Amino acid sequence: MPDKPKYYLTTPIYYTNGLPHIGHTYSTIVCDTIRRYKRMRGYDAVMTTGTDEHGVNVERSAKKAGVPESEFVAKMAAEWRALWDELGVQGDEFIRTTDLKHAHTVQWLFKQCRDNGFVYPGHYTGQYCIYDNAYVDVMPGENCPDCGRPTETVTEANFYFKLSAFQKPLLDWYAKHPDFIQPEARRNEVLSFVEGGLRDLSITRTSVRWGIPVPGEEPHVFYVWFDALTAYLSAVGGPQYEKTGFFPADLHLVGKEIIRFHAVYWPAFLMAAGLPLPKQVWAHGWLLMDSAKMSKSLGNVVRPRPIVHVLGMDALRYYLLRETVFGQDGNFSYDALVQRYNSDLANGLGNLASRTTAMIEKNNGGKIPKPATFQPQDTALATKAQEAIGEVLEQYDKLGFSLALEEIWSLIAATDKYLTTEHPWSLGDSEADQQRRATILWTTAEVLRIVTALTHPVLPESTTKVWSLLGQPGQADSVALDGLRWGQLVPGTALGKSQALFPRIEKAEAIERMEAMEKEAQNAPSPVTTPAPASAPGASAAASAAAAQAAPEKIGIEDFAKVEMRVGQIKTAERIVGADKLLKLTVDIGTEIRQICAGIAQFYEPEKLIGRKVAVVVNLAPRKLRGVESNGMIVAASVGPEGRPVLAGFPDEDVEIGARLK
Ligand code: MSP
Q1: Is 27 near ligand 1, meaning CB less than 6 Å away?
Q2: Among the listed residues 86, 80, 19, the one whose alpha carbon sits nearest the alpha carbon of residue 526
Q3: pLDDT digits 0-9 by tens, 420-440
Q4: Ligand 1 lined by 76 (C-beta under 6 Å)
Q5: How far, in Å, is the centroid of ligand 1 from the Cα of 284?
Q6: Which residues of 193-220 are buried (b: 16+ CB within 10 A; e: fewer)?
Q7: What is the 255 CA–ligand 1 centroid distance (Å)?
Q8: pLDDT tens-digit profile of 74-109?
Q9: Which ligand 1 atom sits closest to the C-alpha of 266?
Q10: CA 244, CA 580: separation in Å to the nearest integer?
């Protein structure tokens, strides 16, 4: 079988000085939808996301929280990662700019640019916006023209990147690749910026401490954008990118305010280093709240968790993709969100699925009926469904999510209408009536199957349920969209168990619950706070500090006994595509063979692990790592500042497989 074509897409990496709101969520969900779609079109699609963890903002936030920067960013990155998991985001690699492999890639890229003559030392004085991490063209005392926050005068020694040398190469590139920047309005904006002339860019800082060091040039650290953009390379192999075959990206998806960094600086850095350029940079619009871009400082943010809690993750995904025309700004409102949920999901897709399957359950013993003679109204619906397949795929290809969903929902509406006019529920028991009902129900179920496959990239959770409700083979994500056609629903297929999809909800009550949770989240302490030391009234500050430093709480033997550790033997070990830290192992633990993922891929060759005896925590709840089920944990020491894993083992004795560690 020929290899699947590779497709690499990226979200921006998110700043860790704040927590995600639905604006950030939008970027990530769009990317996740594209990844799912591309996989269903037969691509080996890989998506990366991550966190942008360096810079003055983090230095300041960590100081305010009273913790070292490394601890601060680790906790914040964990929050981001956890949220994406809750939203069903299937990222293949979560890159942190504090990862060692990332630092090496940034240093390597700098060396390439420098060796090729595009870097030189200098000095710079200018107004700096620490929020946007950029020098801005204003006078001292003036605010940042982009975000309106105060700027600071910064003078420092630094290294310059010869951006000016790339004006012509960039313009030539844009001319040769007219689709490189999307949409058109952003392309024009970038073109006029570059045509206006490019000034060299300072790419290191000496006024900042929390950053990746420039080797041999300390105290220089890399400018956050040189650092951050390089994450797109370090996520897929870094200097060895040719081995993974994913670089350069097919698509960098970004918000419109960071288009310049992606469409000017990034390609210039790559050209300077002699590396290939991405195929496309797509800038989406902003999610607005009360007509302003959602932002922490404006206090108009809406968080994803309350929405997911009340309406489910698919409701948020659907709303974001349906309500906003991709590329333009969109306004968020709780009212419109619940409206969409009730009308499109509960009354639309949910209702179609439950009434169709309930009728098949009642009249056909829970098996897809065999259609008899098709009448013109059946064929008309079939034609509409077949045409919808083509149009929806075309829209998805253009990232026209809202139009794709509109098309699918117009098919759902046509099917509702078809059911109303054909009213299968009022047909009787005569042979002719039974045959007519079977034809109508088969036709309706066939529409539902097609709708389910087409909506899966947007609604992964609920369509997975509908797919099994329809008794379809495999999972909804395994459908090859290229082969999706009218008429493939096999009569006689037994329906699966019925499941709740989108229970209707009273609008006022839903909004009240979401707003209350949002308020609670706003008042909650940051995930990174120093624990208040337990101190007696009147105790000195020094004593309180000492208490805070006290040894960690001791546990009793009964707590330790809860952890069941056994000797296991590794039977197979393989790498996981797109997750370069993980190995997928099968391990014999005496009573059974378990599949376990271990984050040791960068330090252990899979072949050399076969037959090795290891310590396994066997009573850990199963979980998914990068989408792969892991049922247990291999114990390893964490060595050195980078936490290199060293497997615990039994070199002196031939221990029995399954023996308990006590
Ligand atoms: N760290 C940089 C990106 C570096 S990429 C090499 C950054 N981070 S960010 O956290 O501020 O923004 C990340 C993404 O979230 C951007 O694409 C931005 O446009 C998006 N959004 C943040 N607020 C948004 C809205 N209100 N609406 C839509 N997207 C928005 O920039």
Answers
A1: yes
A2: 19
A3: 999 999 999 999 999 999 999
A4: no
A5: 10
A6: ebeeebebbbbbbbebebbbbbeeeeeb
A7: 6
A8: 999 999 999 999 998 988 999 999 999 999 999 999
A9: 6
A10: 10
